[in-house]
Amino acid sequence: MLRYATRRVLSALPIAFIAVTVCFFILRAAPGGPFDSDRPLPPEVLANVRAYYNLDQPLFMQYLLYIGGVLRGDLGPSMSSYDFSVSELMAIGMPFSLQLGLTAFVIATAIGVITGMIAAVYKNKWPDYMLVLVVMIGVIVPNFLIGALLQLWFGVYLRWLPAGGWVPGSWAHLVLPVAVLSWAHAARISRLMRGSMIETLGTNYVRTARSKGLGERLVLARHAIKPALIPVVSYLGPGLSYLLTGSLVVEQIFGLPGIGRYFIQAALNRDYGMVLGTTLFYMLLIIALNLIVDLVYAWLDPKVRYR
Amino acid sequence: MSDYVLSIQDLSVTFALHDTEVQAVREMNFDLRAGETLAVVGESGSGKSQAFLGIMGLLAKNGRATGKAVLGDVNLLGMAPSRLDAYRGKDIAMIFQDPMTSLNPSLKIKTQLSEVLVKHRGFDTRKAEMTTIEMLERVGIPEPAKRANAYPHEMSGGMRQRVMIAMALLCQPKILIADEPTTALDVTVQAQMLDLFKTLTEDFGTSLVMITHDLGVVAGVADRMMVMYGGRAVEKGKVDDLFYDPRHPYTLGLLHSTPHIAHRAARLDPIQGLPPSLEHLPKGCSFNPRCAFCFDRCLEERPPLTPVGDEREKACFFEGPLQSKKVA
Fold first, then answer.
1. Binary contact (A302, B85; C-beta < 8 A)
2. B138/A55: higher pLDDT
3. B8: domain range?
């Protein structure tokens, strides 16, 4: 198990490197630059600014300088918030984004697994139909629409919850954003879990378990859930990237102080350093969580460990 | 009826399809004595497996078993699954055809075995695991203590079937139902497996029901046999009687289509045609389209199962000698 983990960590490093490289060049291929504006800067000032950010160097040189910085842990200065470095801005937004994203991830996964199981056990009966309906809404309706509708309903008409904004330490402000973020993720997990559980319940080994007279509860808990979770767990990695990219939008809709807000601003302003920094952050997060997912996978499916 | 451990009366198994019903098993009757081995023989689709899955309460969701299956003084059929669980795995156990998929791939062998003892005997985990290891040794698994910690995918098909046998016999059940237990195994392993069945059921005094389409298996282990066709029993009796003097043309056909070491040169003589669709059974005797002895009465009336001699029954109108004429 330990060897398996080490191998997985080592193989994650080149992935990170390739991803940064691709991002760097794609970003530079986009038209415009950080200092284009309606009122152009005087040529001498522009030349100075460009020199300060190394933008006067050949592109490949800039890339090497950037990679060098990243390896030393320096993500460079922000090009639109002049007094801050990228790391400082991210340190401001990161705790919030992590809190939001992981809360939604954990809640959504738990809800998805449980509802999927219920739907499978009551296949083609009313609990199944109800759950499928709620799940389909989550799959079909995009999060910015669900977000706006929930804001309108619970925030404006009913006034049960704040419609947006953030007060540090207030759970009430998290409820709607987490709900919006979780819905789609829980819906996908639930669908997967339902299908996988139905399949598992039809397998020969579940029939064997029933033939032993274990009782339906033990058959489900010990013999069906673990194998049924395997496809669900393998989806958690990609599912997480959906959820995190969704959180950029949700932070914007609800006016929350996470990295998402900086990311969108930075992308609009061609703040190269900031966009790369946030991308790098999300990428590392996704790699790390995928790694955890793979390890859980190895625990669920003993065959994986020996490959 | 107290010398019977299991008494099946008018067992029928029906499956509900979209707009129709299919009867997989029709009015089956038999009694199983303590310690004896009964072989249930028939082609695919003859209802032999479904009958016993019905008794075990393991039919697919759309399946329904009616009739009576009396074990001791209780009727297993129509019992709620929660009540049935007091008997399944304890008094009546089942082994399935495919050992590769019948064990849970994500649980260790010892977990899957010891849970039976915890449930039915109330053992604590440690005692259950020790008994498990003893049982694994009895079914011929080398290094049982080590293998108990293995997962199913680390074992061969033959080993897995041994594990299944150990699992079924943990509580020393009165009845063991083995559904084609050797079909998925290598021929060399098959013989070992049959020996194992024989010795273990003798040791525990367990009655064995061997569901099979392999007459070689029947000859090797069974005392009595029941031949099934189109969901019904067509001939019953002692194995020797049926082998040497079959009274139903279908039994004769099965015997002719089995290779025999004494007649190596002879070509096998298969039964012509295909097994009937259970949705559209022919009028009269179900076997009539494939039967060489068929006459007008067989096309109109269904022959009932009637006693012929010592512990024998057959469902056929033809009374002459069968041996002289070839089937089909």
1. no
2. B138
3. 1-91+179-188+207-318
Report the residue from A206, A213, A218 with minimal CB separation from B88.
Answer: A213
Question: What is the C-alpha separation between A176 and A168, in angstroms, rounded?
Answer: 15
* pLDDT value at A307 more than 60: no
Q: 3-state SS of B152-182?
A: HHHCCHHHHHHHHHHHHHCCCCCEEEEECCC
Give mean pLDDT, residues B275-298: 86
Cβ pair B153:A303 closer than 8 A: yes
When scoring B90, B91, B104 by the number of chain A Cβ atoms within 10 A, the one with the most, hence best to mutate, is B104
pLDDT in tens, A162-187: 888 888 777 888 889 999 999 989 99
- Name the 3-class secondary structure at B22: strand
Whole-angstrom distance between the N-terminal and C-terminal Cα of chain B? 40
**pLDDT beyond 60 at B324:** no
Domain count, chain B: 1
Residue of B nearest to A303 (CA): B153
Contact check, Cβ <8 Å, A218/B119: yes
Closest Cα in chain A to B82: A215
- In this structure, are residues B30 and B226 in contact, taking their beta carbons and an 8 Å threshold? yes
| CATH number for B216 | 3.40.50.300
Residue with the larger pLDDT of the pair B283 and B3: B283
pLDDT at B328 over 50: no
**What share of chain A in percent tops pLDDT 70?**
98
Render pLDDT for B236-266 as a digit per residue (tens, 0 to 9): 999 999 988 888 999 988 888 877 766 665 6
Which burial class, exposed, middle or buried, applies to A240 when counting CB atoms under 10 A from its CB (0-12, 13-18, 19+)? Answer: buried
- Indicate whether B28 belongs to any domain: yes
* B76 within a domain of the structure (yes/no): yes
**The whole model's pTM is what?**
0.80
Query: How many CA atoms lie within 13 Å of A170's alpha carbon, on the beta-carbon side?
Result: 12
Q: Residue A305 has what pLDDT?
A: 66
The two tokens of residue B274 are: 């295909």
**Å between B295 CA and nearest CA of chain A:** 43
Chain A contact set for B151 (CB, 8 A): 302-303
Alpha-carbon span B82 to A213, nearest angstrom = 8
Give the full edge-to-edge strand order of the sheet including B74-75: B21-33, B4-16, B63-71, B74-75
Q: Is B45 a member of any domain?
A: yes
Residue B56: list chain A partners with CB under 8 A.
Answer: 211
Give the amino acid at B321: P
Residue of B57, B89, B102 lying closest to A204 (CB–CB): B102
Inspect the interface and report whether the beta carbons of A300 and B93 lie closer than 8 Å: no
- Would you say residue B20 lies in a domain? yes
Place of tokens 């061609």: A270
What is the predicted ipTM? Answer: 0.88
> Within the 201-220 window of chain A, which residues sit less than 8 Å (CB to CB) from chain B?
203-216, 218
Please determine, for residue B327, whether its predicted confidence score (pLDDT) is greater than 60: no
Contact B93 A222 (CB under 8 A): no
> What percentage of residues in chain B have a pLDDT greater than 70?
95
Joined together, the tokens standing for residue A15 give 């992935």
Measured between CA atoms, the residue of chain B closest to residue A224 is B104
